[in-house]
Amino acid sequence: MRKGVFGACRALILAVVALLASGPALAEDGYDLWLRYRPLADSAQARYRPLATAIAAPQDDPSIRIAAAELHRGLSGLLRADVPASADAIAPGAILLGTSGDRRIAALGLPLSTLGREGYLIRSVRVDGKPATVIAANSGVGVLYGAFHLLRLVQTGDPIDRIDIRSVPKVELRLLNHWDNLDRSVERGYAGQSIWDWWKLPDITNPRYVDYARANASIGINGTVLNNVNAKADSLTAPYIAKAAKLADIFRPYGIRVYLSARWSAPIEIGGLKTADPLDPAVAAWWKAKADEIYAAIPDFGGFLVKANSEGQPGPQDYQRSHADGANMLAAAVKPHGGIVMWRAFVYAHENPDDRARQAYDEFKPLDGRFADNVIVQVKNGAIDFQPREPFHPLFGAMPKTPLMMEFQITKEYLGFATHLVYLGALFEETLASDTFAKGKGSTVARVIDGSLEGHARTGMAGVANIGVDRDWTGSQFDQANWYAFGRLAWDPEASARRIAADWAGMTFSTDPAFVAPVVDMMMRSREAVVDYMTPLGLHHLMATGHHYGPGPWVDDLERPDWNPVYYHRADAQGIGFDRTKTGSNAVAQYAPPVARQLGDIRTVPERDLLWFHHVRWDHRMASGRILWDELVTRYDRGVAEVAAMRARWATLAPYVDADRHADVMRFLAVQAREAQWWRDASIAYFATFARRPLPAGSPPPAHDLDYYKALRFPYAPGN
Amino acid sequence: MRKGVFGACRALILAVVALLASGPALAEDGYDLWLRYRPLADSAQARYRPLATAIAAPQDDPSIRIAAAELHRGLSGLLRADVPASADAIAPGAILLGTSGDRRIAALGLPLSTLGREGYLIRSVRVDGKPATVIAANSGVGVLYGAFHLLRLVQTGDPIDRIDIRSVPKVELRLLNHWDNLDRSVERGYAGQSIWDWWKLPDITNPRYVDYARANASIGINGTVLNNVNAKADSLTAPYIAKAAKLADIFRPYGIRVYLSARWSAPIEIGGLKTADPLDPAVAAWWKAKADEIYAAIPDFGGFLVKANSEGQPGPQDYQRSHADGANMLAAAVKPHGGIVMWRAFVYAHENPDDRARQAYDEFKPLDGRFADNVIVQVKNGAIDFQPREPFHPLFGAMPKTPLMMEFQITKEYLGFATHLVYLGALFEETLASDTFAKGKGSTVARVIDGSLEGHARTGMAGVANIGVDRDWTGSQFDQANWYAFGRLAWDPEASARRIAADWAGMTFSTDPAFVAPVVDMMMRSREAVVDYMTPLGLHHLMATGHHYGPGPWVDDLERPDWNPVYYHRADAQGIGFDRTKTGSNAVAQYAPPVARQLGDIRTVPERDLLWFHHVRWDHRMASGRILWDELVTRYDRGVAEVAAMRARWATLAPYVDADRHADVMRFLAVQAREAQWWRDASIAYFATFARRPLPAGSPPPAHDLDYYKALRFPYAPGN
Fold first, then answer.
1. Is A416 helix (H, G, I), strand (E, B) or coil?
2. A667 closest CB neighbour out of B16, B82, B203
3. What is the secondary structure of B45-103 as a DSSP string?
4. How far from each other are the two terminal CA atoms of chain A, in whole angstroms?
């Protein structure tokens, strides 16, 4: 009879659920990111339910309380069941959380000692004779990371019945860099204004701050630089320190520290000093007092990020001091508190006539060994500036005595803003897998970054955030994948971008293999597509002035030579490309000899980097058998075709995605298709004026003449 | 037995509902505005259900389809029942929608002929012998307005069983003015950036555009000026016309037309002409062609709003032409398409040494009768600029041959931004109820605005929007009430602000009288509170430079005299206040004689306007028996005390409001309490340097000295 009652109830309950679920509040707008926790298929629910009957967690650690709450939220949603969290009872199928200090965890005799502060174990065990899953670590944050890992397994349909996972981050500092200004504009931000509402902080906070912390913790990000590297001194004044402290309080239990970008000239601008000379004792004393003030408000403040003597920013060179002098002075100020200084190597100077690609290396290489032990030098992935493709930065492997941290750009300044679907996991992976040959074969950039190559304990990876107030956080659904992939690769720089894409797609949309396989394929190919339709064969920095949206290869009127696209492509009647071999700028010599040899020889350089390193004749014969001009046009055409293929493919995937997000992505792909064509047409129209050759057979002429493309203006492009 | 089954089910269903309702997606973040549609109390659900069994609506009119969908959504939520919408069947308790052209509506013989295009009837009727509720109008939009009215009745618990409502808007143009820039910044915006994502339009639209239209339609707003009156010519270029057209397409079925602010010098800036002289035939031809281009994309384009020769904007006076010359030339361009020109009277000139309060009147009064019949002059509520309190603008009643439309500011530029709780319904009502005496007693501003005083058919009311991308739309929960009240008062300028507040509070939070009564009382008092703690007794424009946040009565260093607070308060050793009587600027003479006499005489002027019109001795005896200085301080204290009372009162209302929004409002009130004190302390510290008298007994000294307040800086205040 009871069964009959429940049978009868079932239909009613489903009707009620359907009614509630049809409400507007459950619309899929992307806000939930990869932490959607929508119900799994019935069969999967049945499989997991016995393995997730309850959550047993001590209540004294705030991070573990959050881990338990997240598991409760996630499992209750995924399994459509109430998975209660409590402190004590262990039922069969319970999930037990705890640290090495807990009695029940200690009794399990798990090998926790090598996990460090942030690593964790997830294991199927027996507790008091009952089957259970334990998530154990040496800190509450480690447990929280493990909880998110377990949730991911359930979200993506991985088995958890005989589980034995050990995970330890390979990189110490896994940071977002927000180029967010105090007026809430975001330099190179394409997802609306800054999520930091500085004006209302610290009194009024946004629930989004917590969801930001959840999302970051779920992928292991453990620090955030709140303000733009083009910094204002105001961020170091008392009111703004109080605002940052409020954010730090919110983020702390999620294992996220706050950092600030420091304006080099702050001692003058807000300190009333006459100088910012790093060797002036008054300047050092000012920074020390400022650090003390910050740490009084934020005891676990991470430290400073500094952009100095670059693109107009002040710095120690204004006083004839070196970058090391500057970094070390700041480092001394934060050292008593355990803080660090991240000193950016992205420098190039007005006065320097050298190839811009050479300058950071020339400036920093001689300083190797001169930095204090709490300084880490932050190097962009390539020597120019976040192009669709760049060879790895020659500094990686070239400063063995100095910890170098990676700076990737998650926000797509040069890759079609948030409008174009480009999965950056593929780009990040390509750089990390590049072999510097600094200590022979296998000296990958990943091994420079994780410290294993040169034995550095201090390691880091920073990503310039693509986050804003847009409801979907990142300006498009697919740009969420780039935030996600960054976090996962910062945890493990040798992880597979393809595997990460599969996790993301499964958590974000659907775990159906008929969906995941084509979407992952599309994501992995999307990066090559943008290279092809914007800057194929090693071309770079051809974007329009200032905002960097759309093609501007003809631009030659900017104040500084190395801000002009013509500086980079050097097209002429004979050919195209930047000669960086010894007949040219010889930037290639900055790489280790095996790399320099390969890149410096037109016969061995990979075609993808050809025009980065060589000025090549239009009739140069390529691997395809085509001459360079024909190959160039073919690549442009290939990029356009690839976007058309993405569009067609996504259209077939409607059955797997809610209507709102599916349509949303379709609209973005339509724009991308139009703009890929624009890039191709404008670039070909321009380069044809040098090549003076016909287009290869089957390749249509540009839709407009060159003047049409040159006349396009975008005065209100975002992020500029 | 079946009953037993359902009894058993009930508990389970409630558990499932509770589980789902506990999810994050149902969090009350304010996004739903006053259209929340959360379930009513059980007893109310039971009362309404028989009266809302189904929705019968023809499917051929897009506005009626929207009305039916909104009723379905609203009633299904409120009554926790599926209220189906269909085209045909009339069941007992159905809600029948339709226009005069529908057979079933015509058969009812309703008096629709006097409703105009936008009015509606809601009546309890019998259709085919069955009891029903009919919503009838002469247009689909009229039906939509009626549907929102019916929903409001259900939301607020009003009976609908014997209903007989007739509603016709008294004002033709009920418009929002967005001071939104093309880069998404919002001048005087305190709710995040512009909801118009110009960059992504027209290809990519935000679901928010639809919710914006729903919210506006629900309060009768029928037009929106998309861009800032400080306009850029780019908004008139083809790409931006296409973007505006996309918004127009979305808004059209909601009865909302789009308008654009026109940059006077656009013919030069984007037209390639040498002049923008309105009497130059080439200029007129350019605007005519531009209007044709806009109407080709937006057939129901509303017309232009123009800020000319004011605060640095170009205008016809640059060519020695009058405002009428300028307005009429533009009016001729849009006239063939049925468009209008709204010409702002907010002008004051660098060169003019006259009292700024006089200048708009002096400029426009002589032009009465000289404007084309599709021009309407838009006048701010007061002669200065959206102060916490201003006497009504002397132009109201002074230009009988010219239709004047009201410009209110919904965004709180001078009233504590979105942070301070100030219900502007009380301010709007005070202005509208003011008697101009233009045609004897009863010549209220409301009757100027609704056209009844001078027989104008063209009427309008504009509100400068307080809308942005913040999740709660307006930067705070209570600022939603100001958007709401503006719409309701635009529909009926003689409506009661108190009654509107009650509707809003009931729809937005709770209809419990134990909640509504104290909240409405608090809202109605909140406006007097801000007057008291910022600018009591007729003081005005004492806000800090530029951003207008916080006190700056001491500011005297701005380029233009009339930008300085000292220009307005004129405090000296003898007294304080601006003499606008005949011994001073004589601005008072711009009012009709009975008003001028009352305001011009220190014995009869209301104390609330005292220092607006008179320079008054510190020892002047006030109605309270106190001298002016003591009264001034007492008012400041009263304002601070009122905010403390609001805080205490809101704290007691927690049982009626979800925890998130209750806490949110508490945090805002805490800031307001601190800042009311700041205003009071800084103002008293400053004025005491002139009055040189002790504070009245019991009034504490300012917390800091004057220099402290003068030194405060807010370089990143929003909206500036």
1. coil
2. B203
3. HHHHGGG-SEEE--SS-HHHHHHHHHHHHHHHHHTTS---EESS---TTEEEEEETTSH
4. 69
Catalytic residue (one of A300, A311, A354, A368): A311
pLDDT given for residue A350 in this prediction: 66
Cβ within 8 Å of residue A579, ≥6 positions away = A570, A585, A613, A614, A615
Enter the ipTM.
0.94
B-proximal residues of A, 134-173, CB under 8 Å: none
Q: Does B718 touch chain A (CB under 8 A)?
A: yes
Provide the total of helices (H) and of strands (E) in chain B, helices listed first: 22, 16
Q: How far, in Å, CA of B356 to CA of B84, rounded?
A: 59
Spatial distance between the Cα atoms of B650 and B666, rounded to a whole number of angstroms: 7
User: Token match 């037209």: residue?
Assistant: B271
Contact criterion met (CB below 8 Å) for B233 and A686? no
Nearest-angstrom CA–CA distance, B426 and B497: 6
All structural domains of chain B, each given as residue ranges with its CATH number in brackets, are 42-167 (3.30.379.10), 173-509 (3.20.20.80), 510-572+618-719 (3.90.1330.10), 579-614 (no CATH)
pLDDT band at A26 (very low <50, low <70, confident <90, very high): low
Distance CA A210, CA A188 (A): 24
Substitution target from A2, A12, A182, A199 for chain B, most B beta carbons within 10 A: A199
Element (H, E) at B309: none
Q: Are B69 and B85 in contact (CB under 8 A)?
A: yes
Q: How many residues does chain A have?
A: 720
Q: What is the pTM of this model?
A: 0.95
B238 reaches A (C-beta below 8 A): no
Alpha-carbon distance A503 to A448, whole Å?
26
A-chain residues within 8 Å CB-CB of B182?
Answer: 715-716
Q: Which residues contact A572 (CB under 8 A, 6 or more apart)?
A: A690
Q: Which is catalytic among the residues B311, B362, B494, B512? A: B311
Rounded Cα distance between B331 and B217, Å, is 27
| Cα B298 → chain centroid | 25
Are B184 and A718 in contact (CB < 8 Å)? yes
In this prediction, residue A562 carries a pLDDT of 86
Q: Taking 70 as the threshold, does the pLDDT of residue B1 lie above it?
A: no
Q: Is B385 a catalytic residue?
A: yes
